Amino acid sequence: MEEIKWGIIGCGDVTEVKSGPAFNKVPHSKLVAVMRRDAVKAADYAKRHGVPKWYDDATALINDPEVNAIYIATPPLQHEAYTLEALAAGKPVYVEKPMTLNAASAQRMIDASSKYNTKLVVAHYRRAQPMFLAVKKLLAENAIGELRLVDLKMLQPINPKLVAQTGDNWRMDPAVSGGGLFHDLAPHQLDLMAYYFGNIQKSTGIATKQQKNTAVDDLVVGQILFESGVVFNGNWCFSVSPSDQSDSCVIYGSKGKISFPMFGHKIDVTVEAISEEIHFEPLEHVQQPMIEQVVKYFLGQAENPCSGKEALITMEIMDAFTADVVG
C-alpha cells in the first residue's frame, strides 16, 4: 500500500473531533468511507466531514475494494466481531479502547491477527501524545530517582463532563461496555502504567456497586506490583460530589515526584523540594499523533505503536480488578 484508505465502522461521537478528521490530516492517509447502522446519521456524518461513501452495513464497508484499512469505533461489544471480520478480509484494523469486553475476547482478536497475518493496533493513543511521552522520558532519565510508588485517583460525579454523552447511554450497560465508566476511562490510565513500568508480577482489586439501581461497578480499587518493584494504587469512583472530583496521577521516586492529570495539559515535577511546571498545548484531534504512527506501521515504515498483546495486558488488569463485583 502507498496510501491508507480508511473505512470507519461506528462514526459516532468519538469520531467527530477526537479521531475522524485526523485521518485526512495525516500524510499518506485518507478517509474514504464511514458506516453507522442508522443510515440517516451515517449519511449526515459523511456529508458534514466530506467523506465520499457511507454505509449502514459493516460487511459492505469491509468489502469495499477501495477501503484498505478499518477503524472500529463502536461500543466495545462489537469490537471483536468486526475486528475478526475485517482481519479475515485482509484489512488491517485500528480498534478503539477498551480493546473489547474482556481478556478472553482480546486473545481471540490477537489469534485472528496471527491467523490471517493481518495487522492489528489498539487505540491507546496517549502513548503518542507529547505530554505522556515527556513523562516517559523523565522516568527514563531517572529525574525523580529510583521509582517507588504510583498513586492514581479518578474521582468523578455522576454523569461526568469528561465522558462523551450519548442518547442511549451504552456505557452504563455492562453487556455493551464491559462494566461502566471504569471500563471506559481506566484503559487510558492502566495502559500508560504498563507502558511506563513494564512487566507485571501481580494485580488485584475490589469492585463494588455503591449507587442504587445500577448494573455497573461504580467504585473500583486496584493494586499492581510490577516486576521492577514499583507498586501502583488506583482508585476510581463515579459518584462523588462535584466539589471532590479529582483526576490525578502521582509517581513517587527516591528524589521526588511527577504529577499529572490524565485529562489535562500540565506536568508538575518536584525534585528535592524544587518544583517545575511543564505545560503542553491542547491537541485539536487527540488521536492524530497515534494515527500518524498507525499509518506508518500499516505502510511498513514503523513498529506497531500498541499491539494487541500490549492491549491484552490492560484487559487482564481490568479483569483482575473487577473479578468479584460486590453489590
Automatic annotation (TrEMBL):
Residues 4-124 form the Gfo/Idh/MocA-like oxidoreductase N-terminal domain. It comes from the Bacteria. Keywords: Oxidoreductase. GO terms for molecular function: nucleotide binding; oxidoreductase activity. The keyword Nucleotide-binding does not apply. The keyword Oxidoreductase applies. Residues 132-258 form the GFO/IDH/MocA-like oxidoreductase domain. It holds the Pfam family GFO_IDH_MocA_C3. PANTHER family: BCDNA.GH03377. This is Predicted dehydrogenase. It comes from Pedobacter rhizosphaerae.
